[in-house]
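We modelled each protein-ligand pair independently. The example shown here corresponds to the pyridoxal-5'-phosphate entry; the chain sequence is given first, followed by the ligand as SMILES.
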Amino acid sequence: MATKNWKLETIAVQGGYDPANGDPRVVPLVQSTTYAYDSAQNVADFFDLKAVGHFYTRISNPTVAAFEAKMTMLESGVGALACASGQAAITYALLNICQAGQHIVATQALYGGTFNLLSQTLPKLGITCTFVDQHAPATEIAAAIQDNTRCLLAESLSNPGTEVLDFDKFTTIAREAGIPLIVDNTFPTPHLCRPIEFGADIVVHSSSKYIDGHATSLGGVIIDGGQFDWTNGKFPEMTEPDPSYHGLSYSESFGNSAYIVKARVQLTRDIGAVLAPMNAWLSNLGLETLHLRMERHSSNTTRLAEWLAADSRIQWVKYPGLKTDANYALAQRYLKGASGVLTFGVQGGIEAGERFMNSLKLARLVVHVADVRTSVLHPASMTHRQLTAAQQMQAGIRPELIRVSVGLEHIDDIIADFDQALSAATKA
Ligand SMILES: *Cc1c(COP(=O)(O)O)cnc(C)c1O
C-alpha cells in the first residue's frame, strides 16, 4: 500500500484505499447511515473515543474516509475532515479554534462566500475579523493581530482576483504571533501547490471545484498539517478537559492530530454538515485524474491569456501565469502551474462585457468555476453582488471584470469562441 515515497500522481490514482483479498478494486460507495455491531460495549467505546470505527455517518463513513485519506496524503497532512461544502469546511476550520470575543485576521482578496461569513455571520456569533491587503509589508499585516486573534486566513490563489499568497511572509507573521495559518487551497489544488510544505498549518478546500472537477458534487475538506503547537498556552480548548467527552484533552489524547479530531468529534457531532457518501465517491473519482486535468487547465489558460493579451478588443487581462502579471514571481515560486482561472475586461466596459458573455457559444455563463467545461461569470453582479462597490474593489473586482474558468476543450475551439464573441461585443 501507500508508501511515503509515492508521487502525487500515484496518490491521486491509488491513495487512500487498499483493497484486501477479494475486495472491490474501486472504492465502494457505502450508502448507509449506520453500522451493525455485536456488543453494546463495542459501541460505547466509539462514543467515548476509546475505539476507532464507523458507527454513524454524521461522524464517519468508509467512502468518505477513503476520500479523506487520499486528501491527507495529497496535502502531506496528518488527517482530514470532509464537509458538506467548501463553506462548511471553512466555517468548521474557524469555529474549531474561535469563539465569541475572539478575532481573525484575513486577506481582503477572498471568495465572496468566505468574505460574507467573516464580515456578516461570524460577527453575529461574536467573532470579528480584520481584513488586510496581502501585498502590504509584513509589519502592517502583523499590526492587525490582536491579543485575541486566533488565526490568519488566506487563499493560496484567490478567487476571483488570482492573487498569489506570499507563503514565507504569512508563515513568518503567524509563527511570530503563535497562531496558525489557515490556507484555502481550492484554486491550485494539491497538484499545483502544497501549502503545508510551505509552512501553512491548516488547509481547506472547496472540493466542489477542481477536486471533483466535473461540477457534479458540492463538498469541502479540511486537512490538518499536524505541525502547529496547540500547547503554546493560547488554545485551552485543545489542552483543557472537554466535559462532553468525560474530561478528555485533545492534545494529550491525540497529539499532533488534536485539531482535526476535535473538529470531527465536536463540530460534526453538533452541527453535522458532513460530506454525503455519494459526493465523496464522485469527488474521489475526480481526484483520480487531478494531475492530468490541472496540467491541461493551466496550459489552456496560459494560451488563452496570451491570446487575449495580444488582442486590441480587450482592456486588460490578469493571470499569474503571464510573465507581465504582478503575481508572476510569486506564482513561479509557489505554484507548479497557475491553474485554470483568468480575469479580463472587454473594451467598452460593462455593457460590452455583457454582450461578450451573451455571445459565447462554447463557453457558458454559469455560477461555477473549476470544472472541465469552459465557463464565464461576472462577479460584480453575481458571486460578489452582496459586497459594496468599495468592498468589491478591495477584493480586486473591478466592475467590468469577467472571470473565465478555462476548461479542457481544445484550446483552438475555446479561442475561436472568444474571438467571435469579442467581435460581436465590440463591433460599433
Ligand atoms: C467556491 C469556493 C468556496 C466555497 O465552496 P462551496 O463548495 O461552494 O461551499 C470557498 N473558497 C473558494 C476559494 C472557492 O472558490
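Residues 85-87, 111, 113-114, 155, 159, 184, 186, 206, 208-209, 218, 220 surround pyridoxal-5'-phosphate (CB under 6 Å).
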